[in-house]
Amino acid sequence: MGNLNLKIKTERFKNALYLESGRILEPFDLVYETYGTLNEAKDNAIVVCHALSASHHAAGYYENDKKAGWWDALIGSAKPIDTDRFFVICANAIGSCYGSTGPTSPAYPRLEPYRFKFPVITVKDMVKAERLLIDRLGISSIYAAIGGSMGGMRALHFAVDYPALVKRVIAMATTHATSPWAIAFNKVAMESVINDPAFENGAYDVEALKERGLKGAAIGRMAGHISFLSPESMNRKFGRDFVGTEGLFDLFGRFQVERYLDYNGGNFPKWFDPLSFLYIVKAINIYDLSRGYDSLESALSRVKSRLHLFGFDRDLLFLPQEMKEIDLTMKKIGKGELSRYYHIQSDYGHDAFLVEIDKFADTIAEILR
User: Fold this and answer.
1) What is 161-176 written as a DSSP string?
2) Active-site entry in 315, 327, 339, 346
3) Which of 48, 165, 199, 248 is surrounded by the most beta carbons within 10 Å?
């Protein structure tokens, strides 16, 4: 007991993935990690869904890593998602840049990357691809699907699109349809990338860009970081402290919050591909759980899973009332017994689902118990 049993694999699918847009992706790869051991009945699997810029590396350490996977505090031996008990799967979404098929992948049968010829993908498409992976692993019942932000969108799609597959869905800091407020933040980020001359209309050299970065993507990421935090968390984290080595009356002297944005924004395009960023932001913008159905009520009427919906008090990107609306709609259509809303008191902001795990860890453990 106590072994995370981290394994990383790539699965190639030669069958066509029919996308919401009407286009197809064929063939396509999914990179994924697993933790724990699949039991003989194959009924102890939990699907973990990552957010916009995260990857399949949700827990544990790679060799020479200084930083663990993005949800390491939640996944592992004797942790809320207990790998002594569960077999955990985290797949890198299609469109991303960590090995699953995306815009910089070779466009079969040619060797050149897709770039802007890559089809627009949706959150529903991402989940459809993950479903094919689950089928390939011989799993017919998922104990739980869990994720935050875009990962929460994916978890909700499991409940609506594959109602007989998943027993529990835990969706955190997300929504049923992306709001104009979030789309506006994303517009600033996308325009910053597209209008940077070094972006070269998507024809940039991928390896060279990793070295030099991309100023436009850095600026776009700054807008994202503002939306991930809250005024309270910024006050607590930075206050009005000035960078001590810089001159107060130097025009380009910076407050600590400015240095934070410079650092995080500047590094972002060196580890996350700008084309993948554009495609995944587009998927988030057009996300609507009720698309293809007459209404949200109609979409949620398909749900058979138990929905556990977490809203965070000072999340300014996906407001807690957006999560509450899903719960209220479930009650409205007579499915209230399948839905529960949890309001987490936090002034951290949207990223609380990644940072303040102590505020909901026991609740997650209880749900899975």
Assistant:
1) H-TTTBSEEEEES--S
2) 315
3) 48
